[in-house]
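User: Modeling request: complex.
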Amino acid sequence: MATDLDIILKKYKQGKREELIPILQEIQEELGYLSEEAIVKVGGFLGLSTTKIYGLATFYDRFRFIPSGKIKVSICHGTSCFLNGSQSVINKIKDEIGVLPGQTTRDGNFSYEIVSCMGGCHNGPLINVNGEYHAHIKAEQLPELIKRLKYVIEND
Amino acid sequence: MLFTIQVNNKKIKAEKGETILSALNRNGIIIPTLCRMKEFTPTGACRMCVVEVDGRDRLVTACSQPVEEWMKIKTHSPRVIQARKTIVELLLSNHPDDCLYCDRNLNCELQRLSEELNIRERRIRGRKIKPRLDQSSPAIVRELSKCILCGRCVRVCEEVVTATSLDFINKGRETHVGAAMDRDFNFSSCIHCGQCVLVCPTGALHEKHNINEVQEYLHKPDIIKVIQYSPMVTVGIAEELGMRYNREFDKILNAVLRKIGFDKIFTTGTGTDVCITEITSQLSEKIDSNSQIPLYLSACPAWVKYAEQFIPSLIPQLSTVKSSQQITGVLVKTLVAGQLGVKPEDIFSVSATPCMAMKFEARRDGMMRKGISDVDAVLTVRELVRLIRLYGIDTTNIEHEPADEPMANRSSSAVLAEVSGGLVESVIRSYHYLKLKKEADKQLFKKLRSGGVFREASVPVGEIELKVAVVDGLTGLEKLKASIASGKKYDLIEVMTCPGGCVHGAGLPFSSSKDEIRSRSKLVYQADDTEAINLPCKSPTLINLYEKLLKENIDIADKKIFYTHFERKNVLL
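Assistant: Request completed. Predicted assembly structure:
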């Protein structure tokens, strides 16, 4: 993992603070999250305190600080999806998976997040599972979907 | 360039380039501020200082807006007052409102503002922040539920202390002030200097109280209660009790402490004298061996932690002499215990200090022997004042009493160590006297006493020239670094975390304005100019300690108890 970080950092100029967000984005892209190790390393690289980096990164919803699950669900909570009942979808997922948005289950299988708009307003409520969109999702369909996903993980 | 502006239908003089607020204040017009800190660039974050400017649709923040010639300003129009009131009401909407139990009760800026703005009912109800209490640090407690996000602590920690241990985390309603990875404070790069506590307008940051512990022990009959206090404590207490400080006040404090129930009262100044003496001999050794390595003074515990975590390469250059509190503490548990014929664990040793990092220092590795701490509890000046009030002692009508031997007196050098540049001056004066048997001219130290965050001087001692640097507040470290990088060599370097030295310590009363800090420094220099015993080696207390007491006691005769070690600290930087 450390080598991954080094490869990313090599592309940037040391001490150039304005590169912070691009660096963090790339690390997140590569590792899936911003680990403590990564933040410390970037801090040393740019001459910034970890407190500052963490403070900045937590401002943006996009950055996460724990690895996401093998199954990563994004639920659209934009105006249109909200009107079509995305809240009940969110509630159901919370019940089924048992963690809060942004968190990952202990076994590392599931994580979900709530996003503002995924641009499929006529198809709401919209969810995205590992890059695949599911339109017009209803809360009742979720147990079945999650069961299927679990099966996929267990037999992968 | 001066010009006239109109404020509340009156003409006042304003200076080009200054802010509206500064022009108003100079002309005796007071408007409330909250996030503002003098000497800092304004942020205009809290909007408390808004004023109405003719021709502007929106209210403007007086703290950040420069004055202009055409301005017609209203500082207390109904619109302005309504806006300020709403701001405070919004701040109060999710506040815990437990003022009666709060550390800052009667001394809180939010409380004062809501009183000044005549807020008498709760108009806005917000969801309260869940109380998150972080008591992990040995020195500083964070009560996030009381935080109003003014950001003063964040700025002080970054711009004055340079430890940058605090920042805003998350956004919107979730925003709070915290350390890296939102960890508890003891895992952070916090150096416990407490400057954030001094600037916190509410009770969100305060010192960890040891007062209950002290009270509990005060009632234990089999325990010998010992307290030491440093010279700045008396000054702080006189301030807090509204009395004038002079040397006699020490004796009043002695009597007060005895009434509270302390059996033995010592002055930390004796420890400082020992500290100066030991550093002097380290310096002497260094000069004799012609070593090029500078000697960094380690009397400031916050600086020591800073060095341990940020500049570990410096650790071998730190003087291993303990700080005055710990030297006094160790003497209490060894020498005094021996004299009294009790076991060290039967002594409860309290220290009153103007410093918050001392609370952390007393818990450090190497500050205890066989599991028994040298200093059991550390009280800030504010806590000691509370203790005095708690016991209802009338300080105006009390007899003067001396402190207890073997640590009853100090030299004026020990007082001098409370200001930035003072310890280094004391050490050189001692060294001068040691080598040449005559006192150094005080004019030699003029350059070390004032003038910026980084000061340097070359002090002649006989044949040699001592190169000395003083870092007054950690912002001066950059200049020191640059100076060393440019090839300059120093023999002795003093670093103090709090700007100005211990006179600006975080344990002193809250209302510390710049003037007050200056007047504290003045008292220190005054003491040094007027007191007869101005060098540790002239103090009978110290002579008795070194020539008699230490030699008689085999366990401590090697003076090893005055020394400690430092090591690299791994924290999130």
